[in-house]
TrEMBL record:
The keyword Hydrolase applies. This is Hydrolase. GO terms for molecular function: hydrolase activity. It comes from Streptomyces bingchenggensis (strain BCW-1). PANTHER family: HYDROLASE ALPHA/BETA FOLD FAMILY (PTHR43194), PEROXISOMAL MEMBRANE PROTEIN LPX1 (PTHR43194:SF2). Residues 22-244 form the AB hydrolase-1 domain. The keyword Hydrolase applies.
Length: 260
């Protein structure tokens, strides 16, 4: 079946001028600024990062679409074509980890390496009862967004940081798109499309994240990707780019730089 909305080149920025090309995909709560705390520490001579805004976020906040991981995967391939990148690596945070796997499923020969950071499995993350109600209410209720961020980072961060994260999320996402994205990343199961993929994968999780845990990665990502490995950052929860940026840059760039 043809997609309802054709692919587009999403708004993006390029950082660095190195030969290792990386598409960095943000998660549910942020636009491309999700990686802002990492950028001062990246190796700009070795890497070029393309940081897009998915539909409904940042500069793409008013761009309509299906708001699905599959649609986003097609958009990112359109971005790679626009940049002339026949081969590239992927860095995906949370929901962006599911989007990255859609790219792998659609064009495995174009993906050098994949790094998932607190990444959603290709089987989704179905929720029930009060947990589902909390997540669905986050589209309209700032206090729900705050509760989710606080819980997934271990309940240990200052109130000012939580408030900043919520404020940025509200200002840089469209509420209807935000809600629609949830149904895609949480409920869709496409793991058979990536099962046995030979793309080298590194999954990075924060030890303080009670939701996307090392054990969940062992039960999903590490079972489905024969060339997958796991890294756990002791000082991070669900947002390693903010909580442990230096450690995350090292985990990402050491792995991708090994691609010949």
């Amino acid at each position: 079946m043809e997609p309802i909305v054709p692919p587009l080149v999403p708004p993006f920025e390029l950082v660095g001028e190195g030969p290792h090309r990386v598409v960095a995909i943000h998660g549910w709560f942020s636009d491309r600024a999700a990686f802002a705390a990492m950028l001062p520490h990246i190796d700009r001579r070795a890497f070029t990062y393309a940081l897009p805004d998915l539909r409904g976020y940042g500069e793409a906040r008013d761009i309509r679409g299906e708001y699905t991981t599959g649609e986003a995967g097609r958009d990112l391939l359109a971005l790679a074509d626009h940049l002339g990148w026949q081969r590239f690596s992927l860095l995906g945070h949370s929901m962006g980890g599911a989007v990255a796997q859609r790219v792998v499923a659609a064009a495995p020969d174009r993906v050098g390496r994949l790094v998932g950071v607190a990444p959603v499995p290709a089987s989704g993350m179905p929720m029930e009862g009060e947990q589902w109600e909390l997540f669905t209410s986050a589209a309209e209720r700032p206090e729900s967004r705050r509760a989710i961020i606080d819980y997934t980072t271990g309940g240990r961060h200052p109130a000012a940081w939580l408030d900043m994260m919520v404020r940025h999320s509200l200002e840089h996402s469209d509420a209807k798109a935000f809600r629609a994205w949830l149904d895609s990343w949480a409920l869709e199961d496409f793991h058979e499309d990536i099962l046995g993929s030979r793309v080298p994968v590194r999954v990075v999780v924060g030890a303080q994240d009670p939701a996307v845990t090392a054990e969940l990665m062992r039960q999903t990502w590490l079972r489905w990707y024969p060339r997958a490995e796991l890294v756990e950052l002791p000082g991070a929860g669900h947002y390693p780019a903010d909580e442990s940026p230096l450690e995350l840059v090292r985990a990402v760039e050491d792995f991708i730089a090994a691609d010949a």
